[in-house]
């Protein structure tokens, strides 16, 4: 630790006015919204009245402008005037998001939209602003530098925040409130920790006596941590009205302390002064900021499991936009169709309105989260509309004339793989075998008769080579449907519809493959004889893994490629939770319940050549709730670690239905768990012992595979050591590893049970918000039906180099299928516009830049070693060279290409692009 500077030098107090605006939290959105309108009205009045009130920071999020103008559109010119003259400072974000529960691409879109919206009014601030984020991901420094930002202002992660948003005096990781923060790729930014919180200059007194007392305390507090004589005071707090008498308060401070310069400042001026006055080498903090060196009671990590249904909807919403809608729209754009910029931006904005920490974290009042469900659905509906449009456009260009030989009954369909790797897997489509349009003039009774009489026999599924593809066909009977043409009125029809399930094989990355359901004299009865994946009464096996189910419903998984066996997988655990939406607290001395001693009902429910599935039923008696002590402790505002409540003696039945599935091409076994929760104040987890010898594990985070210690730091006192994840967590040793992938299950723990068990939280049910008062949240008990999905994937010890992480990432992305007709086209029946290779690289996104129209592709290096990205583009038709970009999609250095690359799918340009350790690589491809 370096020594403090000479405190006799002249000091400068930088007072920055702001309000931290949670759009929704302990009040529903519209109630906060109305207070926002009052605040901005007051701010504009104060700025208009004179120059003494210098500036105001609008919390780093441009959505505040949208929210205000939604009610006060006539104030746009007045607001814009003060933004352009620098007195209202805006951006760089669209919203202040949670870091660990939102995807990397969602954070990139957040920065892009924030910059774009800010530029409509003025210049976005280059301030990395994270005042109240519940910890920060390790790649933040790289993301900031790629946005032209060399700093981060933050309040959590390096040292703990406790109850009522106060800051502890223990567990520092930095010598000063200023530090250098280094990301896994080596990027470094100047970090400024709000060591005395982002309200340390709030409500500065004007009267002499109060001001004297105020500054005596506040000067000492800031000097305790500051590395220079530039002292930072944040004049604001949560939903804080502006201090209109601040100029008078500053003048009083100057009278009391003539040796100190008091400035109504702003972040750029403060940063310039701070950099100019730097005297000491600052401490360097590396990687994630998760409050690792604390007692563990104030990390707010269990927001990862509060209202899990929100996280599941968010996972699907993000995947539908970034991994399906954008790539498909880009594909269609290559074929000459307009890219739906405005629609996708609207969908992203709607989704991101659910991404602030008090929203996506599930730590608000019930009304807030009801409205979030509607936003998730709205965003998803836009994504689905764009997907339908793009797939229709692309399918029209696919040559399906190869199926014409099967006659007029041929029903082609296109399977799209929008992930970054070649993919095989189980897909499903509802296909119209026959249609009669209402416009044909046939009576409704006549249409029903004709459709019910459609002969579905004698049909098989074939690929583009005519090979039979095993499938399951379910007759859905007579159905109603309609087309919505752009050039005429809606076109309703009656149809005979079937649901077809099959395994799509080797669909190229970011590409497509055509199939057809046809009438054929050569029948394929392999589905009815499907026992290829059953190796015993309760055994599932393919070329990669073998699975055996035990009497208690747990299963053993053998990795056939390494010979390693994992036992007792899939046991469920249940404990009480007397905490709140922010933090989990298990009742003292409680022994966890598990399904290990139960006898499960087990039966096979699917047996086909492409997949076998078993149903496992547990009827489990668990406590119905906490006892009556919890209600009293909540009303008395007992800090949750100090609570003494236990679980009720009354029980309720939790029936858990597990479907264990193994597909022919699957690298792991898929687990779907459903139950109707009628218990309160409890947590349900799925346990996966690894029995692997390692002190660390790896976890998917934002643009990073983070490495974390299994055992917490010595300061850690919380018995729970739960952590955030995105797509998966991986425990591995030198030659073996086990990945547990999930869909929207963002909380896990590696248990210190001698087996390095991966525990994934399925549901956490609590009844209060927590934090600074009593806010009952009965809907956070999550009563009702729930469904959870995971995939258990063994590997050879290197998930990034093997296919384990690829399998886990592809698990996140739904397949897309569309029915089409027989027609000629410019695209082959198996096609992709791109091909790429790169050891340890993960594909992240494909989209079109709004201004340039260039295609933008992004990868990130999962490993701390340099890799080489080789990219081939087949459909560009341009003489311009590709270029390296950043997350703002700005043009950088040109990339030299080589011509003449030719494969069975490609004949185009090739680029070779170095990817540094843990680097986020964005490439622009001109059109």
TrEMBL record:
Organism: Paenibacillus illinoisensis
Keywords carried by this UniProt record: Glycosidase, Hydrolase, Metal-binding
One Pfam family of this chain: Alpha-mann_mid
Name of the protein in question: Alpha-mannosidase
InterPro entries referenced in this protein's UniProt entry, alphabetically: Gal_mutarotase_sf_dom, GH38_beta-1, GH38_C, Glyco_hydro/deAcase_b/a-brl, Glyco_hydro_38_C, Glyco_hydro_38_cen, Glyco_hydro_38_cen_sf, Glyco_hydro_38_N
Family: Belongs to the glycosyl hydrolase 38 family.
Keyword Hydrolase attached: yes
Keyword match Hydrolase: yes
SUPFAM superfamilies with a match to the protein in the record: Families 57/38 glycoside transferase middle domain, Galactose mutarotase-like, Glycoside hydrolase/deacetylase
Positions of transmembrane segments: none
Gene3D superfamilies on file: 2.60.40.2210, Glycoside hydrolase 38, N terminal domain (3.20.110.10), Glycoside hydrolase family 38, central domain (1.20.1270.50), Golgi alpha-mannosidase II, domain 4 (2.70.98.30)
CDD domains reported for this sequence: GH38N_AMII_SpGH38_like
Residue ranges constituting the Glycoside hydrolase family 38 central domain according to the UniProt record: 303-376
Highest taxon of source: Bacteria
């Amino acid at each position: 630790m370096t020594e403090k500077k000479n405190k006799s030098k002249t000091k400068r107090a930088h007072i920055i006015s702001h309000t931290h605006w949670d759009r929704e939290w302990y009040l529903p959105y519209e109630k906060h919204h109305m207070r926002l309108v009052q605040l901005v009205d007051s701010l504009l009045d104060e700025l208009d009245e004179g120059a003494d009130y210098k500036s105001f920071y609008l919390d780093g999020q441009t959505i505040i402008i949208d929210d205000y103008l939604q009610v006060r559109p006539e104030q746009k010119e007045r607001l814009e005037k003060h933004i352009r003259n620098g007195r209202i400072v805006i951006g760089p974000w669209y919203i202040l998001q949670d870091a660990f529960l939102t995807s990397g691409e969602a954070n990139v879109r957040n920065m892009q939209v924030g910059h774009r919206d800010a530029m409509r009014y003025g210049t976005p601030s280059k301030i990395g602003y994270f005042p109240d984020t519940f910890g920060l991901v390790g790649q933040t420094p790289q993301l900031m530098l790629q946005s032209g930002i060399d700093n981060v202002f933050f309040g959590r992660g390096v040292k703990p925040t406790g109850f009522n948003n106060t800051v502890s005096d223990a567990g520092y990781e930095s010598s000063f409130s200023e530090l250098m923060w280094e990301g896994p790729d080596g990027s470094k930014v100047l970090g400024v920790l709000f060591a005395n919180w982002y309200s340390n200059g709030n409500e500065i007194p004007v009267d002499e006596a109060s001001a004297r007392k105020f500054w005596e305390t506040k000067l000492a507090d800031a000097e305790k941590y500051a590395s220079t004589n530039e002292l930072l005071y944040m004049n604001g707090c949560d939903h804080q009205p502006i201090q209109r008498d601040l100029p008078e308060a500053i003048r009083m401070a100057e009278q009391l302390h003539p040796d100190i310069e008091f400035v109504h400042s702003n972040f750029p001026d403060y940063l310039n002064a701070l950099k100019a006055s730097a005297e000491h080498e600052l401490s360097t903090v590396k990687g994630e900021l998760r409050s690792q060196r604390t007692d563990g009671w104030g990390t707010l990590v269990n927001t990862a499991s509060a209202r899990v249904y929100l996280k599941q909807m968010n996972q699907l919403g993000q995947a539908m936009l970034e991994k399906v809608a954008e790539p498909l729209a880009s594909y269609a754009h290559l074929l000459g169709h307009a890219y739906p910029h405005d629609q996708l931006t609207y969908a992203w904005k709607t989704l991101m309105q659910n991404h602030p920490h008090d929203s996506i974290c599930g730590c608000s009042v019930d009304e807030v989260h009801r409205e979030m469900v509607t936003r998730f659905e709205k965003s998803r509906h836009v994504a689905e509309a764009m997907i339908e449009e793009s797939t229709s456009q692309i399918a029209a260009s696919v040559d399906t004339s190869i199926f014409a030989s099967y006659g007029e009954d041929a029903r082609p369909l296109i399977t799209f793989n929008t992930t970054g790797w070649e993919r095989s897997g189980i897909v499903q489509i509802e296909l119209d075998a026959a249609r009669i349009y209402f416009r044909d003039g046939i009576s409704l009774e006549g249409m029903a008769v004709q459709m019910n009489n459609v002969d579905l026999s004698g049909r098989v599924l074939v690929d583009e080579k005519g090979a039979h593809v095993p499938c399951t066909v379910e007759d859905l009977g007579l159905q109603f449907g309609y087309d919505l043409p752009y050039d005429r009125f809606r076109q309703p029809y009656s149809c005979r519809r079937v649901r077809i399930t099959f395994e799509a094989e080797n669909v190229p990355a970011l590409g497509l493959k055509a199939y057809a359901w046809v009438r054929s004299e050569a029948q394929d009865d392999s589905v009815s004889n499907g026992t290829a994946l059953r190796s015993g009464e309760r055994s599932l096996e393919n070329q990669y893994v073998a699975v055996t189910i035990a009497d208690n419903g747990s299963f053993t998984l053998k990795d056939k490629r390494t010979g390693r066996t994992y036992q007792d997988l899939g046991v469920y655990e249940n404990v009480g939770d007397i905490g709140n939406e922010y933090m989990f607290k298990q009742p003292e001395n409680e022994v966890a319940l598990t399904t290990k001693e139960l006898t499960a009902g087990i039966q096979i429910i699917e047996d086909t050549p492409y997949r076998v599935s078993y149903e496992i039923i547990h009827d489990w008696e668990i406590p119905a709730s906490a006892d009556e002590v919890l209600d009293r402790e909540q009303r008395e505002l007992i800090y949750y670690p100090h609570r003494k409540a236990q679980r009720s003696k009354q029980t309720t039945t939790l029936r858990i239905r597990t479907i264990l599935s193994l597909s022919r091409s699957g690298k792991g076994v898929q687990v779907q768990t459903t139950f109707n929760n009628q218990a309160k104040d409890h947590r349900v987890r799925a346990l996966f012992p690894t029995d692997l010898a390692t002190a660390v594990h790896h976890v998917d985070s934002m643009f990073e595979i983070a490495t974390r210690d299994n055992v917490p730091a010595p300061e850690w006192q919380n018995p729970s050591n739960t952590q955030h994840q995105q797509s998966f967590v991986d425990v591995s040793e030198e030659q073996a590893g086990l990945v547990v992938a999930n869909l929207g299950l963002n909380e896990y723990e590696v248990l210190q049970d001698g087996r390095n068990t991966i525990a994934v939280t399925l549901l956490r049910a609590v009844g209060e918000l927590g934090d600074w008062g009593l806010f009952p949240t009965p809907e956070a008990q999550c009563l009702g039906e729930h469904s959870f999905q995971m995939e258990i994937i063994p590997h050879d010890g290197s998930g990034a180099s093997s296919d384990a992480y690829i399998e886990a990432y592809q698990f996140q992305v739904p397949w897309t299928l569309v029915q089409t007709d027989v027609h000629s086209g410019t695209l082959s029946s198996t096609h992709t516009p791109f091909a790429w290779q790169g050891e340890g690289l993960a594909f992240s996104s494909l989209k079109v830049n709004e201004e340039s129209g260039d295609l933008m592709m992004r990868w990130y290096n999962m490993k701390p070693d340099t890799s080489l990205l080789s990219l081939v583009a087949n459909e560009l038709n341009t003489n311009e060279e590709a270029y390296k970009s950043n997350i703002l999609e700005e043009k950088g250095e040109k990339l030299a290409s080589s011509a003449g690359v030719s494969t069975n799918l490609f004949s185009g340009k090739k680029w070779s692009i170095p990817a540094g350790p843990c680097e986020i690589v964005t490439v622009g491809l001109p059109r």
